[in-house]
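Input chain follows. Return C-alpha cells only.
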Amino acid sequence: MGILWTIIIGFIAGVIAKFLMPGRDPGGFIITTLLGIAGAFVATYLGEAVGWYRAGEGAGFIGAVVGAVIILAIYRMVAGRRTA
C-alpha cells in the first residue's frame, strides 16, 4: 500500500508543482505529473536515507511537492537545452 500511496501523493504533487512553476513544459501535463510521482519517490527514499522517515513510510506531502518541483526544474533545464 505504501507504493500506491506514494504514487497518489506524487500525482497530486505533480499537479501542484505545475501550478507553482507555470510555463511551457516540453512534455506537457502528463510528463509533469509523472515527474511529480518521481519526485515523491525521490523524497521518500531520500527522507529514509537521511532519517526523516522510517522504512515503509511515505514522504510527507510537502516533501513530495518539493521533490516534484526540483525534478521539474531539472527536467526543464535538460529538455530546454535539447530543444534550443
